[in-house]
């Protein structure tokens, strides 16, 4: 599944546990081949102006400047985003901004980047507008899952591809802009070819990914992408982070810490020093940097936390695979049009965020070994479940580790986890709000008592962690990482 070839872009192999995967390394030196990669495409229609829509429209326009390929934004009638798109230079006057159905009908490559609930409501109109021989592009496998639920299918005579950046839209844009100074800076992406009616779908997908600035692009399937992405949002990328920091904060407060100290041992630790340590040195590097006593604390927290996290993530995976999570998103889309979600930022711990942020730079915050053990256990549990279920290693390390530490956690560090949950996509927000409290309850009721008890968890789990093949896979992927960290204002 991971092997592919390209008539346009140089491919290479990356060694992973048990074999190798074919990838394409990105970079601006490849922009000169984009026209060839997009052969047959004269107009790209980007439908939607959410975080991904904005980022991808801007990146594609910049990458294709002077190429003769036009990037046009399509919005629904009376869209509140029209003014924002105009402010970025997309206008009705020059034909780069218009009604989404008209843009879909006029485009050779149509990127459907609207919210999932809107996709569920309006996909028949989009499908009807597509020209035979055109290509439909997705950045998420949600639509495949929804069509499975409804018994519908993609239109005949249309190629269907996906390019899925492994980071939030703002990261896709910010790192692309940084890539003007550091060649290859960007967000890794997976690609999938679901239907290929002209034999050019693979090169078209690779051109799309390279034009977005992806440092490296790997192959997956639309189904695998959908499963790993939705599960990841509900687990280590967002939902689990929410549950972990809330539970660690409460634990610290019960032990006598004041609100600022408790915040530093929970949210500040996970999103700051722990995330940076994983990004720089991998999962093993977090443990290796701890002292003898700190390492013992890490091991107890890891051993106590791994199995409960694995059980909960397996439950999430099952509910995504059987359509339960998808149906909840669609149902919520109807409900939320009249009753918006309440924010989670009213929790007591977030009152300490401003003071902690103000103190940054005055004193270093060391890695808290207990928080690190709990977090790494949860991350590794997701890795192991994905590996057991046959996901490719590039997808595993990107969806479970790289996207977290190089895209999402830096934003949470700048603005806190509550802000991230309250301002992400509806699909991710629903998942975080549903599963974050589940992780919190499991930690407080099962993991913490086990870590504090006489047994402290199964030490064999730590030995399995030390020998885990994820370390080899992550080290291989890290070699493709550009030497730049995302700049978060």
Automatic annotation (TrEMBL):
Binding positions for Mg(2+) 1 per the UniProt entry: 229, 233
Q: Which residues bind Mg(2+) 2?
A: 229
Keywords associated with the record? Amino-acid biosynthesis, Branched-chain amino acid biosynthesis, Magnesium, Metal-binding, Oxidoreductase
What InterPro entries does the record tag this protein with? Answer: 6-PGluconate_DH-like_C_sf, 6PGD_dom2, KARI, KARI_C, KARI_N, NAD(P)-bd_dom_sf
- Which positions fall inside the KARI N-terminal Rossmann domain? 24-220
Give the KARI C-terminal knotted domain ranges.
221-363
Give yes or no: UniProt keyword Electron transport: no
Q: In which pathway does it act?
A: Amino-acid biosynthesis; L-valine biosynthesis; L-valine from pyruvate: step 2/4; Amino-acid biosynthesis; L-isoleucine biosynthesis; L-isoleucine from 2-oxobutanoate: step 2/4
Q: Which cofactor does it need?
A: Mg(2+)
Q: Which Pfam families match?
A: KARI_C, KARI_N
- The domain of life is Bacteria
Tell me its family: Belongs to the ketol-acid reductoisomerase family.
Q: Kindly give the PANTHER family that the UniProt entry links to this protein.
A: KETOL-ACID REDUCTOISOMERASE, MITOCHONDRIAL (PTHR21371)
Q: What is this protein called?
A: Acetohydroxy-acid isomeroreductase
Q: What organism is listed for this UniProt entry?
A: Pseudonocardia eucalypti
